[in-house]
Amino acid sequence: MGENGSPKTLVNIITEDNPIPAYLFVKEKYVPGDRVMYISAKDTADDLEWLAAIDGVPAEFIEEIVLKNDIDEFKYEKICRVVKSHIRQGVHYCVNLAGGTRYMALAVQQVFEAADAQFFYTNVADNTIIHSQFDNSIFDDDDYFFPIRYRMRIAEYLTVHELEHDMAHHSHAPEMPLEAVENMFELFTKKLLSDRDYKVLELLRTHYRDCKNGIPIREVESPTRYGIPPVSDIRGFLRMTNVEPHDDRLTHSQLEWLTGGWFEDYVYYKVKQIINPDEVAKGVHIWRKGVSRNNELDVVFIKNNQLFVIECKTGVQTERLFNEIVYKACALKEALLGVSCHSYIASLKHDASNDLKKIARSMDIEFWDFKIMTFKLENKLKEIKEKF
Distances in Å between the alpha carbon of 357 and those of 282, 322, 352, 373, 385? Predict the structure, then answer.
């Protein structure tokens, strides 16, 4: 309800590549009985329909204003006339100006200044909603900042961006306990693995990682398939890495863990310990409805309504391969995960020259190399916690 008990309508302008401000504005300020008005250009009409379907507001309480022609979003007077025709007397409007093009926001502000309206701005970067008075006085400091109390989950963030995901189908938790993960981290970072150990890992990666049903230990020791080298010392290697076979066989998840999954577990545990996110998950698959190809997010967490994705690679053999990893992370962010997503690449590769960090930074991605992972990771994660 409005300040005087009159009906309240929340107003949002739709933005194609950043639906989060509109979504959070409704989630934070809506109470049963309120109405919601969505204003959209023609090319964002589908985004309007999607938000209206998932915002939790009954359909009969949602009003949709869509500009009919592609060029209309650049016609100031046309926008004003269309929006003004929907304004009603006796209704209190709460207008969120954090959406649409700047041009549309100016027109919407102009129209609602003549109505019973308050103006807001959803600032996702600081997780706040700003309430401003647009008047002739600029010296009375009447801009008010309110923290957004509502907290999205990972699945919710993905859904808002119209992404399908498997969050509900798996635990997305570490495969092994922290002690085993830290043991693997020490084996790799303190050069405790022999050349033979690396060879065993390579054989497991090449010949057995894709075995969906796992593999009997005896098959690894004495392969029945032609051309596969035996790993007669596999049991000693498993003891060193704290991996216990199930019914004398390695499971598919254990094979994945040994050949790189442990590094994702390590990052997961550190994020959970130091940042204490609202939610953290590993190995999350995402895809667009109707598109067969999907992408995997190695470690993903959400904090104060912002999404963080960490691509985990123990080693990166060439600069070309690194470029591919960076481009993929950048494409995920820009095409799927939105501007409220922050991307990182974690690796045990040395980057003393900082060349790889510069490549990543040019694509708005932060690269954590061997030095950061072994000596500065806690500081990096604390920076994220304090900044966001």
Answer: 24, 10, 10, 13, 21
pLDDT band at 74 (very low <50, low <70, confident <90, very high): confident
DSSP 126: G
CA contacts within 13 A on the Cβ side of 345: 32
Instruction: Tell me what pLDDT residue 319 has.
Output: 83
Q: What's this model's pTM, rounded to 2 decimal places?
A: 0.92
Question: Contacts by 273-279 with C-beta closer than 8 Å and gap 24+?
Answer: 274/378, 274/381, 274/382, 274/385, 275/301, 275/303, 275/381, 275/384, 275/385, 276/385, 277/301, 277/302, 277/303, 277/308, 278/151, 278/152, 278/153, 278/302, 278/303, 278/304, 279/153, 279/154
User: What is the rounded distance in angstroms from the CA atom of residue 310 to the CA atom of residue 57?
Assistant: 33
What is the distance between the alpha carbons of residues 348 and 341, in angstroms, rounded to a whole number?
23
303: number of Cβ within 10 Å:
21
Rounded CA separation 328/293 (Å): 13
- pLDDT, tens digit, for every residue of 117-141? 999 999 999 999 999 888 777 777 7
User: Can you name the residues that pair with 12 across neighbouring β-strands?
Assistant: 38, 96
> Which of 259, 214, 218, 228 has the alpha carbon at shortest distance from 241?
259
pLDDT, tens digit (0-9, with 9 covering 90-100), for 262-311: 999 999 999 999 999 999 999 999 999 888 778 999 999 999 999 999 99
The span from the CA of 234 to the CA of 228, in Å, is 14
The three-class DSSP label of residue 282 is strand
Strand locations in 162-294 (E): 164-165, 215-216, 249-250, 279-287
What is the identity of the amino acid at 317? Q
- Band of residue 5 on the pLDDT scale cut at 50, 70, 90: low
Closest by CA position to 346, among listed 206, 194, 189 = 189
Cβ within 8 Å of residue 172, ≥6 positions away: 281, 282, 283, 284
pLDDT at 4: 53
DSSP states along 65-104: EE-SSGGGGG-HHHHHHHHHTT--TT-EEEEE-SSS-HHH
